[in-house]
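Regression test case RT-17, inverse folding.

Input:
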């Protein structure tokens, strides 16, 4: 991709007013395997990664049809978010240890304190049991 824009102001830099052009296609890069502790540092925010944990529950957000999966890791919990999800809840994943591949995201409060870890996945096919 060819991406242009201006640096936006916020907790971390971001691209404001982006414009992009697709130049071709390529496979996804190899994800880095992250523990919850590593993800919780915030250092890996916006990195392509894998995290694993035990699936606890599901919620469907109406806006964007986002499937939100609650996952328990040995030392914390995180949420996996899959946009544009229109299938049934994957109940076979409840209580299963699952590896999720996607973009590692961090949520911060108004005092810039880390309050949550998210895994943003492009689709349900980015899971492995």
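Golden output:
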């Amino acid at each position: 991709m060819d991406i242009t824009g201006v640096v936006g102001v916020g907790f971390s830099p971001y691209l404001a007013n982006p414009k992009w052009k697709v130049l071709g296609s390529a496979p996804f890069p190899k994800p880095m395997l992250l523990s919850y502790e590593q993800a919780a540092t915030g250092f890996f925010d916006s990195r392509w990664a894998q995290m694993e944990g035990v699936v606890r529950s599901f919620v469907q957000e109406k806006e964007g049809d986002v499937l939100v999966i609650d996952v328990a890791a040995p030392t914390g919990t995180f949420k996996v978010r899959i946009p544009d999800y229109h299938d049934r809840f994957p109940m076979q994943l409840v209580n299963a240890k699952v590896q999720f591949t996607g973009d590692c995201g961090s949520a911060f409060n108004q005092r810039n304190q880390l309050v949550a870890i998210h895994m943003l996945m492009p689709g349900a096919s980015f899971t492995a049991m």
